[in-house]
Amino acid sequence: MQAQVSISILVMSAASGLAILGVPAELQAQGEVDDEIIVDDPRPVAKAAEILSAKYGYVVTYEDPEYQYEGDVREVTQEVAKSASPKNRVLVPAGGALTIRNLKGLAHIDAAARGRAMVAAVIEAQGAEPSQGGTFRIAESRGMIHIIPQKVRDANGEWVSARPVLDTIITIPQRTRSGLEMLREICEALSKKTGETVVLGAISLNAFSRIQVTNGADNVPAREVLSILLGASAAKMSWQLFYAPDLQWHVLNIRPAPGDLPNLGEPAERASDQRQQVLRKPANR
Q1: What's the pTM value of the predicted model, to 2 decimals?
Q2: Within its chain, how far is the Cα of 261 from the centroid?
Q3: How far is residue 194 from each of residues 166, 187, 188, 198, measured CA to CA in Å?
Q4: How do the pLDDT tens digits run along the chain, 285 residues long?
Q5: 3-class secondary structure for the chain?
Q6: How far apart are CA 161 and CA 121, in angstroms?
Q7: With CB atoms 3.0 to 4.6 Å apart as the test, which of 17, 49, 132, 175 could cross-link to 207 if both were Cys?
């Protein structure tokens, strides 16, 4: 028996949608990334990956570990409160500073492999400072580099294997729908299968509403379903699946990869791109 996901994509012009999700201002202001990258952020690995993506055009996806240990989160309630007496605590990953060195030493590597090597340098730097919340591994598929949680501390502070949400095997009925509907069904399938809350966060509603898909997934990892959906778009796209420790939610954010926005002035009939892809994997994966 084979697990299968099939997808037939009609990507239409999204004149007012993709432009709102360009490169963040803080990344545009980073300047040249020379021999090292230095970040200080609640999610240092995700931030370093954003910088690499902005400078070199790599499509890098990211998934948070599910933070359980109190030392891996910090409270920012007063920093973000809109009232003097906020009702709910706001928690974010503790994160911290991360330095990735010796990137110039990767200049001799073939361009096709350099992206993975640079992301691997980020992962190795994080692994040297495991007190910052978790360790990660790398996978690649369909032109994307995936940063996947590997180890995280449990509620008692003991290191355990992470359970990446996007490794979850899902099934989605075959039918015609918008790209936005497909994203929502992926989140719903993940929530149902894992028993946890997975929701859409920051995405271009207009862009994904204009993408029409005829597709379905049968016993396939959610990461592969997402990769196919985003990979068939007219623009290179990436995702970040963030974990909100206060709400205990997984929030899926999707954005175009920097420097690869489509020609938004192109007529819809010329911008359209119809593709057919079939993915098969062993049912026991």
Answers
A1: 0.78
A2: 18
A3: 10, 10, 10, 9
A4: 445 444 343 333 222 222 222 333 333 333 344 578 899 999 999 999 998 888 888 899 999 999 999 999 999 888 877 776 777 888 999 999 999 888 877 777 777 788 888 899 999 988 876 666 889 999 998 889 999 999 999 999 999 999 999 999 999 999 998 889 999 999 999 999 999 999 999 988 877 887 888 888 899 999 999 998 887 676 778 999 999 999 999 999 998 876 543 332 222 222 233 233 333 343 443
A5: CEEEEEEEEEECCCCCCHHHHCCCHHHHCCCCCCCCEEEEECCHHHHHHHHHHHHHCCCEEEECCCCCCHHHEEECHHHHCCCCCCCCCCEEECCEEEEECCHHHHCCCCHHHHHHHHHHHHHHHHHCCHHHCCEEEEEEECCEEEEEEEEEECCCCCEEECCCHHHCEEEEEEEEEEHHHHHHHHHHHHHHHHCCEEEECCCCHHHHHHCEEEEEEEEEEHHHHHHHHHHCCCCCEEEEEEEECCCCEEEEEEEECCCCCCCCCCCHHHHCEEEEEEEEEECCC
A6: 21
A7: 17
Q: Hey, what amino acid is at 40?
A: D
Instruction: Map tokens 């993915």 to a residue.
Output: 279
